[in-house]
Design a protein that fits this description.
Elements: E1 5-9, H1 16-27, E2 29-33, H2 52-57, E3 60-61, H3 74-90, E4 94-98, H4 102-109, H5 120-131, H6 135-145, H7 147-155, H8 159-172, H9 176-182, E5 192-198, H10 201-217, H11 220-229, H12 248-251, H13 257-282, E6 288-291, H14 296-310
Parallel strand pairs: 1-4, 1-5, 2-3, 2-4, 5-6
Helix pairs in contact: 1-14, 3-4, 6-7, 6-8, 10-13
Length: 311
């Protein structure tokens, strides 16, 4: 059975965007961002969002959907992505999902449960209350209310996912792990052809450190300052992203710029290692690993040949 979509993923700074543009041009494709931070408006430099010039060359979906103080879940992504994929295929084009957020991909290949009804006013009140609590306390609550989810989120899962698990447990009376086990899936699983860009760790580390410096040169500090001046808070769902939260102490005068840059580089390297661990254990069977040290035109040829062979 042929694939329904092409996926280009891999750790941060491996060249996913550049490769996806060329593949999309060659295959008459449209790109769907599979990045949990690129959904936020006003967060362009620090998320390495496709430039206006790149978006002019290839249609993009999944960018600039919500403000940084709004949550955008994997379940919402899956629903949006399924709609975009159907529309792109109906136009006779190839859907190309691009990004390194593994949970977004898994929400398509292993559909989430049908979400129970939770009143919007109650969700908002609970969200405001949970946001005021330290993350450590939230995790202690979750360990009591949903030990299974707490164990899973120890390995990989930030504050937003912990709050989500608490929200489900408190507002439905059943833990998130129960819903995963008993509720019917929200949709059939997607059949993707997955390509994973990989680099030797020393080269990936070099690229990460260099890209952080390029982002700062491109105006990342002003981007973060502007978001704070617009009233967004450091603990908002978007603002706690790597590259943003580390600059807050600098902008508040609590550390120097060099110290903040080093913190971004360290945090980005840690994130890349977590991504690698996830890719090694969670990708669908048959994923194709690509050597990202090769020239882009060679990688494009590999992707196209495999895609056409699969189809």
């Amino acid at each position: 059975m042929s694939a329904e979509a092409l996926v280009i993923t891999g750790p941060t700074a491996t060249g996913k965007t550049a490769l996806s543009i060329e593949v999309a041009l060659a295959l008459d494709g449209e790109i769907i961002s599979m990045d949990s931070r690129q959904v936020y408006r006003g967060m362009d430099i620090g998320t390495a969002k496709a430039t206006p010039e790149q978006r002019a060359r290839v249609p993009h979906h999944g960018l600039d959907l919500v403000d940084p103080d709004e949550r955008y879940s994997a379940g919402r992504f899956a629903a949006d992505a399924r709609r975009w994929i159907a529309e792109i295929r109906a136009r006779g084009h190839v859907p190309i999902l691009v990004g390194g957020t593994g949970f977004f991909l898994r929400a398509l290949t292993h559909p989430l449960f049908t979400e129970p009804e939770m009143p919007a006013p109650a969700r908002e009140r609970l969200h405001r209350y949970l946001r005021a609590l330290p993350e450590g306390e939230l995790r202690r609550w979750l360990a009591r209310l949903d030990p299974g989810a707490a164990r899973a989120l120890e390995r990989q899962g930030g504050r937003q996912r912990v709050e989500r698990a608490l929200e489900v447990a408190l507002l439905t009376g059943r833990p998130l792990s129960w819903w995963h086990a008993h509720a019917p899936p929200s949709a059939p699983p997607l059949r993707p052809l997955v390509f994973v860009l990989q680099l030797p760790w020393p080269e990936l580390r070099r690229r990460i450190d260099a890209r952080v410096l390029e982002m700062v040169d491109a105006g990342l500090v002003d981007e973060v300052r502007g978001l704070l001046e617009r009233g967004f808070r450091p603990d908002d769902p978007g603002m706690n992203a790597t590259g943003y939260i580390e600059l807050v102490p600098y902008l508040e005068g609590r550390c120097g710029l060099d110290e903040a840059i080093a913190a971004i580089q360290r945090a980005t390297r840690r994130y890349a290692r977590r991504q690698l661990t996830w890719f090694r254990h969670q990708l669908p069977p048959g994923a194709c690993w690509l050597d990202a040290t090769k020239p882009t035109h060679e990688l494009v040829r590999e992707v196209i040949e495999r895609w056409r062979a699969d189809g």
